[in-house]
UniProtKB/TrEMBL annotation, chain A:
It comes from the Bacteria. Its main location: membrane. The lineage of its organism: Bacteria, Bacillati, Bacillota, Bacilli, Bacillales. The keyword Ion transport does not apply. This is ABC transporter ATP-binding protein. The keyword Repressor does not apply. GO terms for molecular function: ABC-type oligopeptide transporter activity; ATP binding; ATP hydrolysis activity. The chain crosses the membrane at residues 52-76, 126-149, 155-174, 235-258, 278-296. PANTHER family: ATP-BINDING CASSETTE SUB-FAMILY B MEMBER 10, MITOCHONDRIAL, ATP-DEPENDENT PERMEASE MDL1, MITOCHONDRIAL. It holds the Pfam family ABC_membrane. It is found in: Cell membrane. Keywords: ATP-binding, Cell membrane, Membrane, Nucleotide-binding, Transmembrane, Transmembrane helix, Transport.
UniProtKB/TrEMBL annotation, chain B:
Residues 382-616 form the ABC transporter domain. One of its GO terms (molecular function) is ATP binding. GO terms for cellular component: plasma membrane. Residues 54-348 form the ABC transmembrane type-1 domain. The lineage of its organism: Bacteria, Bacillati, Bacillota, Bacilli, Bacillales. This is ABC transporter ATP-binding protein. The chain crosses the membrane at residues 51-68, 101-122, 181-199, 205-224, 284-312. Coiled coil: none annotated. It comes from Paenibacillus anaericanus. It holds the Pfam family ABC_tran. It is a multi-pass membrane protein.
Length: 575, 628
């Protein structure tokens, strides 16, 4: 966590201001009991009312000063902590934006999201706690001890017994309670899991008539959680009484020994009263610090996760020397490409070679895990090849800037991702300066114009986050339009027709043919009907190419292809 | 002073952090719609533990009594010390500190503290069981209720919404019962006790201490109003930022592919800046509350010291009483700020409770028939007899449907996505009730059967394959309690799942993880087919969609499904032409209702929607097949 706090550097002036202000605030807190003892020892003893009033007013001023310092500290610490949160968030986000898909795979999208949002918020909150209380606690504790010693050093020996005693009590209870807290978290997770399964599987549970079984499962988890909670709460019930007991017993000790000191003339009564208050301050600051020990482990877990993100270096970087463009347009070639995902035993694709030219449609078909999607994600250089070369327009993709490379490509990913904004915005995503005309045209080819015009605001209709207000098929069509508006040299469709019904699928492909005459089109598909009329079909099987050719050729030569075809079409359709 | 900093210290901290619990000071508080009613109902949940609660109250009274008493006793010791020393100073002969008396007082004090601590421990100890058992009951009731709610309830809201009520809201109630309730009791008792003690010492000083109260109330409320505004703003910006991050990360591939990293970063910076602005203001303003409160407390402290000092010189009160009074006024302001805090917590708890009770109040499924009909030997003859149905009265989807499916027949349901194919399943399984007409199985109206019995006639293999966190064996045996090992394996073999199961590291004992992501989508489907085979139902409901399944697994799935369908009446959401053509009856659905029905040939001859759908695939799509 300390490593992360290096990000506080730009805010060090603010932090110093906080330190100084908290210091003065603590001083004022410490000064008040001394002043009060003056009231007793001088004012009351001598019966000097004027003195009492004067000191009283002075005390008010000290308290006022303390308040001003404290408000100031709050101002600067808010700014420092929020600023810290802001720059850390920006740093993480910026860093993640440079990640290739490989890093995303490694950490997982959901985890990256929590790391950028919740984890940072968590750290920011702890920082505020530290700036507000953590700094104050040791100052009050040490200051309190100094003041106490200055009042009466011998009496301060009481602390030698009391402070370790208190620390030990807190430690023992925490040690006993902690494992239970962890167990509780696990049991809550378990209960939530049973609950969530009950919700997602509700139709299955009811259709298999297993309601009672699920009830029993839930009841077991519920009971387990309840029993552990009762146990831990019974242990924690000790915490407060014991702390209070230690503190009260020490005040009693102070009074007794203080009385003896007073009797022997080493101390005055007002001093004893002040001493009592210092003792309280010292012990409360100890309790405060102990609370931080509960917070810090939680925050440091967050810190570790954030650091993991920041320490990850993106594998793919632009080469220092880039090769100039060849002037060729729409050529994609794989030369003996092999690629494995990090940590995998087997390569995801092995020794792949083929070439696709402008005006041609290349289809890739094969089972899941056969390497289709992997193959095409090498074209926009989402991953780095292990060996061999991927050429786009005759140049190795590693010799181009990623920006240049990706400008040439119109990608329609398997999972259609839309962004918050209007339909216009979403299609324009493919080409920032696209005219309305171009957008409409792209939508038309993607077979999206019909449903768009049926929507209330047409092209200005707003897509909700995650595209939840449009159907799967509509999402897919919009994401196709987004790629088409780019007028790319290379189009990649990664299983992009799966959510479309047969009719739309067919219409779309017919329109697409017209549109992409000068571009290379690469289609990954599951349905045989989608790939039938491709110029070239690449059949993937177990990471390797099982056959390349058109439908007719493959039906004769490729077993894997035939198997796929027979599984999807009835005899008469094939015959 | 430090005392207050610790105790009210939850204020500047976020939700769930620190001892302040949820909803620190200055944060917006959620309010319940019907506070009183909900509170009353929540209290009813506590009523089985009435006796224990009384014990808690009794303990609290004792503990507070002893703790309120102690400052006064301690003050007496100080006074004795003071008197002794003054006597000495004034040279009164024989004057000395009466250590025997002080010693007695100290023994008394030790006793008081010990008793107070002991009772406070008992109080928490008993409360632990009361709180957790109450929450246990609440959770059980909610879960039981959920099993009785109709599917309509679940379809109308997200799982997350229901889940959050059962988990977050119930947790909220749990921690309030555990902590805040006892705190509240003690705080109220302490305030009463302290006021009595203070009045006994000096009515004038009590007046001064009480006068600082309205001051703090005014200060808190005026600041809280401001800070709430900022907190709401902060929450909004945080929501936007999280939304943006989520969107950008899930769309990372697309952003990369379209080279939009810079744009997304720019947008992020804008939101981040706004969040910073709102964030530090909210923090700052709420952070001002504590210093101001503490200052007001200090005013009281100074006034007590001054006035007390003067009163001592006049001989009205004793020195030790000032000391006791200072302690009392601390004990007095602390519970008051605490009570303000707890009031917020209680409000949000009642709001939580209200949401939980809302579930408990939902309308349940139509009650089961008193004398349900049981089919001894189900054949699987299904008849829709003048069925009328709509999810609500305004939109009737099915006007007058008549279908007859005889034993062993296949009914194909076709139509574009979102055409409402699940509606039929909902009716067949009686997840929803028909508006009019009847559905009969083997001549018995399904409304006259027990839901459980009816549903056990059916086997479902759906697209969203539901498997639970458990072993593969348990998952397959799910539909058939007490299935033997051989039966499970036989079912797996018939479903072509045995082979892949045996390639897994622990075979049939492999535990499927939470999302069942350790096996592929296709393998999941094979498991659900095996499950249906083992359950051996008379009627099947199948969903053929296999878009995310690899082609070779699909071959297995199809084989397994064909195996399963033998001799059973099957309703198939069909995607494969072969299935559709061979079906005894095709139901064509669009926009939620059945628009055509008939056999393949009949429908083609009709030249309607189906014919259109069919032709589009063959003529234009390039099914130019001359192979073979």
């Amino acid at each position: 966590m300390l490593k992360l706090f290096r990000n506080l550097k730009p805010y060090r002036l603010l932090v110093i201001a906080v330190l100084v202000l908290v210091f003065f605030q603590s001083l004022s807190e410490l000064y008040l009991p001394t002043l009060m003892s003056d009231i007793i020892d001088t004012g009351v003893v001598k019966g000097d009312t004027a003195y009492i009033w004067n000191i009283g007013i002075f005390m008010l001023l000290v308290a006022l000063g303390g308040m001003v310092c404290s408000i100031g500290a709050s101002y600067f610490s808010s700014k420092a902590a929020s600023g810290f949160g802001k720059s850390l968030r920006a740093k993480v986000f910026n860093h993640v934006e440079n990640f290739s898909l490989e890093e995303f795979d490694k950490l997982g999208t959901a985890s990256l999201i929590t790391r950028t949002t919740n984890d940072i918020t968590q750290i920011q909150q702890v920082l505020i706690m530290i700036l507000r209380m953590m700094i104050m606690a040791p100052m009050l504790c040490i200051g309190g001890i100094i003041m106490a010693v200055s009042k009466d050093a011998t009496l301060s020996l009481v602390f030698i017994v009391v402070i370790p005693g208190l620390a030990l009590a807190i430690l023992l209870i925490a040690r006993k309670g902690m494992p239970y807290f962890k167990a509780i978290q696990l049991k809550i997770d378990k209960l939530n899991l049973v609950m969530r399964e009950g919700l997602t599987g509700i139709r299955v549970i009811r259709s298999f008539n297993r309601i009672d079984h699920e009830k029993k499962r839930f009841q077991a988890a519920n009971l387990d959680l309840t029993e552990t909670s009762i146990k831990v709460n019974k242990i924690m019930a000790l915490m407060m009484p014991i702390m209070m007991l230690v503190m009260n017993f020490s005040s009693v000790a102070i009074i007794w020994f203080g009385g003896l000191r007073i009797d022997s003339g080493h101390m005055q009564v007002g001093d004893l009263m002040a001493f009592l208050q210092y003792a309280m301050q010292i012990m409360f600051s100890l309790v405060m610090v102990s609370m931080m020990f509960v917070l810090i482990p939680r925050a440091s877990a967050s810190a570790i996760r954030i650091n993991e993100v920041l320490d990850m270096v993106p594998i793919i970087k632009d080469a220092e020397v880039l090769k100039p463009a060849t002037g060729k347009k729409g050529y994609v070639e794989f030369q003996n490409v092999t690629f494995s995902y990090p940590g995998a035993e087997q390569p995801a694709i092995q020794d792949i070679s083929f070439a696709a030219n402008p005006g041609e449609v290349t289809a890739i078909i094969g089972g899941t895990g056969s390497g289709k999607s992997t193959l095409i994600s090498l074209i926009p250089r989402f991953y780095e090849v292990d060996s061999g070369r991927v050429l786009v327009d005759g140049t190795d993709v590693r010799d181009m800037s990623q920006e240049e490379l990706r400008k040439k490509i119109g990608l329609v990913p398997q999972k259609s991702v839309l962004f918050t904004g209007t339909i216009n915005d979403n299609i324009r995503y493919g080409k920032e300066d696209a005219t309305d005309e171009e957008i409409r045209h792209a939508a038309q080819i993607a077979q999206a114009s019909n449903f768009i015009s049926e929507m209330e605001d047409g092209y200005d209709s707003v897509i909700a986050q995650g595209g939840s207000n449009v159907s799967g098929g509509q999402k897919q069509r919009l994401s196709i339009a987004r790629a088409l508006v780019r007028q790319a040299e290379v189009y990649i469709f990664d299983d992009s027709f799966s959510a479309l019904d047969f009719k739309t699928d067919a219409k779309l492909r017919a329109a697409l043919k017209q549109e992409t005459q000068e571009s290379t089109v690469i289609i990954v598909a599951q349905r045989v009907s989608t790939v039938l009329d491709a110029d070239r079909i690449i059949v993937m099987n177990d990471s390797q190419i099982a056959g390349i050719g058109n439908h007719r050729e493959l039906m004769e030569t490729c077993d894997v292809y035939r198997e796929i075809v027979y599984s999807q079409l009835s005899e008469e359709e094939i015959a | 002073m430090s005392q207050k900093n610790t105790k009210g210290g939850g204020a500047p901290v976020g939700p769930g952090v620190g001892p302040g619990g949820p909803g620190g000071m200055g944060r917006p508080v959620e309010k319940a719609k019907d506070f009183k009613g909900t509170l009353r109902r929540l209290i009813r949940y506590l009523s089985p533990h009435k006796l224990l609660l009384l014990a808690v109250l009794f303990m609290a009274v004792l503990s507070t009594y002893f703790s309120v008493l102690s400052p006064e006793v301690m003050g007496r010791a100080t006074t004795k010390l003071f008197e002794g020393i003054i006597g000495k100073m004034n040279g009164v002969p024989g004057a000395e500190i009466d250590f025997q008396y002080v010693g007695q007082i100290i023994m008394q004090l030790l006793g008081l503290y010990l008793l107070s601590a002991l009772f406070s421990y008992f109080q928490q100890y008993i409360m632990a069981s009361v709180a957790q058992k109450t929450v246990f009951d609440l959770r059980r009731d909610v879960n039981d209720k959920l099993t009785r709610l109709p599917l309509k309830y679940y379809d109308a809201r997200t799982h997350g919404e229901t889940l959050s009520r059962v988990t977050n809201d119930v947790d909220n109630i749990s921690s309030t019962l555990q902590q805040s309730l006892t705190q509240l009791i003690t705080a109220v008792l302490t305030i009463i006790g302290v006021i009595i003690m203070m009045l006994r010492i000096s009515p004038l000083m009590t007046l001064i201490a009480v006068l600082t109260l309205p001051l703090s109330v005014v200060a808190i409320t005026s600041i809280a109003k401001r800070s709430q505004k900022q907190f709401i703003r902060q929450q909004k910006e945080l929501g936007q930022l999280n939304g943006h991050v989520e969107e950008m990360y899930t769309g990372h591939k697309v952003i990369k592919a379209f080279g939009r990293e810079r744009k997304s970063l720019q947008q992020f910076e804008e939101i981040n800046e706004r969040l910073y602005e709102a964030g530090w203001k909210a923090q700052f303003i709420s952070g001002v509350i504590m210093p101001i409160m503490s200052f007001i407390g200090n005013i009281g402290y100074v006034l007590v010291a001054v006035v007390g000092g003067i009163l001592v010189t006049k001989g009205t009160i004793k020195v030790g009483e000032i000391q006791a009074f200072i302690q009392y006024s601390r004990q007095f302001t602390m519970p008051i700020t605490q009570t303000a805090n707890i009031a917020n917590i209680i409000q949000s708890t009642v709001a939580s409770a209200e949401r939980v009770f809302e579930i408990l109040d939902e309308e349940e499924e139509v009650a089961e028939e008193k004398k349900p009909v049981v089919l001894e030997q189900p054949q699987g003859n299904v008849v829709f007899d003048h069925v009328k149905f709509g999810y609500d009265d305004k939109n009737i989807l099915i006007e007058d449907m008549n279908i007859t499916a005889k034993q062993g027949e296949t009914i194909a349901i076709v139509g574009p996505t979102g055409a409402g194919k699940t509606t039929l399943i909902n009716l067949l399984m009686r997840f929803y009730e028909v508006t009019d007409g009847a559905i009969t199985v083997d001549g018995v109206n399904i409304a006259h059967m027990k839901r459980g019995d009816l549903r056990s006639l059916f086997g479902m293999v759906l697209q969203d394959t539901w498997l639970f966190n458990g072993t593969i064996r348990d998952n397959i045996a799910y539909g058939h309690e007490g299935a033997t090992e051989e039966e499970v394996i036989r079912a797996a073999k018939t479903a072509h799942a045995d082979h892949f199961i045996r390639t897994l590291p622990h075979g049939y004992d492999t535990i499927l993880n939470e999302e069942a992501s350790n096996i592929s989508q296709g393998q999941k489907q094979l498991l659900t087919i095996a499950r249906a085979i083992l359950a051996d139902p008379a009627i099947l409901i199948l969903d053929e969609a296999t878009s995310s399944v690899d082609t070779r697994t699909e071959v297995y799935i199809q084989k397994a499904m064909n195996e399963l369908m033998k001799g059973r009446t099957s309703f198939v959401i069909a995607h494969r032409l072969s299935t559709i053509k061979d079906a005894n009856l095709i139901l064509v659905m669009n926009h939620g209702s059945v628009i055509e029905k008939g056999t393949h040939e009949e429908l083609l001859a009709q030249g309607g929607f189906y014919a259109d759908l069919y032709n589009s695939q063959f003529s234009k799509g390039g099914f130019d097949l001359e192979v073979g």
